[in-house]
Structure formats: C-alpha cells, structure tokens
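WARN retry 2 of 3 for item q-0093 after timeout on previous attempt; input resubmitted unchanged.
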Amino acid sequence: MAPVSAATSLPCGDGQDAARPAASCTATLGDMHDAAPRPPQDYPWPEALPPLAVLGAGGAAEPAADLPAADAALARLGAAGLEGRHLVLAVGSNRNPQVIAAKYAHAGLLQDAQAATVLVTAHVTGIAVGHSAHASAPGYVPAAPFAAPGARTEVTGLWVTTEQREAIDVTEPNYERLALPVGPFPLELAAGEAPAAAEVYASRHGVIGRLRPLPLHASQQELFDRLAALVDPDPFEGDAAEVCARLAADPEDARALLASHGLDLPDGLPRP
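OK item q-0093 returned
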C-alpha cells in the first residue's frame, strides 16, 4: 500500500468548522488514487467495503478473512496491533476509507505503519443516523447520529490508534466524540466481539428535525428539497450543487436559519 505524499488539495470530512470559508476545508495531500476533490453535493461519497478490511496510507482497503488475519496484516505493515486500539463508529463520510486516509495524511501520518486501520462492518441498536443541524464549510449538510430506541443501524467501525483518533478529532470541530456503552446500545461486529464501549462523533449543533429527527436522506438533493419545504426556500431551493455553493458562502447563516425554525433537535445521546 503506497503512502500518501503532500501535493494535492482534497476536501476534509464531516466535521469541518462551519465558520471557516470552504477554501480552509482542504488538506494538502497527494498521490491518492482518488485525488480529485469530491463534489460536496455527492456527500457522503459512499464506497462498498468488505465486512472486514485493513486500510493503508494510500486509501485502499484490503479484505481480511478474520481478526487474526487483520492483525497479521497490521504486523506486516509495521503498524500497531488491534490490542490497545479504540473502536470509533463512523456514520457519514468517515465510512469512506479514502476520506480517513486523507485525514491521516493531513496530520502527517503518511506511512502504512502510521495509517493502517482496521475497518469492520457493525450494527448498533438504539442509534439512527440523521443530519447535523449545520452546514459544513464546503456546503454539504453532514450526517450525525441520534438516539432511536429499537432502531438497528449499520455503521462502519474504525479500529484506530490514539494518534489516528487524534488526527480525526482535529477534522471534527463541529462534533464531540462520545463514549457509547454497549449495554444500552448493543453492538454487533462482522468480525470479533464488541468492546465494553465504542465511540461515536455526535454533532454539537443537534440534528435536523422538528418533532423528531429527519432520517439520513439518500442524497443532498433529497435533503435540500425537504428543507426547502420546511423553511424559507432560500437557501435550500434548487440544484444540489448550487445549494452547496450557496451554503459554503455563509455556513453560519444556514445553521442560524435551521435554529430559527426550530429544526435543531437534541440528539438524545449520553454525555458526561
């Protein structure tokens, strides 16, 4: 797996600071096989993954048969093994391995030994996914989890080192990383046993909804069409690419507009 070198400008992930201009939400990266900036209207840039895979610095995810095989792959890359890693549940663009690799590269984790991460398909009960009540710097409205008794939701588990987790934290100023105890939120992994607690990034702005949170829409266009029907159509009315450009020009205005219409609900997740 080839390392990423500094060269090409790529977009950051879900939690970019909405108060910053879109230009500041790019990381200087390079040599990734998907080096073109991702259109914000295509968020969350889904990518099919095997149930268990090992991510290298270049953004490619190689399948692993089981956890011992994944641990062996980490050892071959010179990376820390699974013991001592943290399980972080991804619900939005962090499910895309190239997004994670880009975040690592922005933090200087350019070698496989630094960036290797195990990705596992997971299902969590009691959690659903909707949209954070803010616009990102590039103009898309990102995903965010919320408490939903009885719901069973597929997510991607990232087995990360402390250094990798810190690299992701830096890209998520609009989110806080919360401990998610598996007692009230049972967790099933496609490979291996779930730890006593996983972690998830929850929005600092709440989730979009009025009486209850809106579920995650299949596309930004569907979400914008729904929001245009709930609030003054401007700035959500129109083609998704145009709406993203409009929101990127003033993300704070979008957050304030959602709040003024009572569309920022608490996510109901446990906090210290």
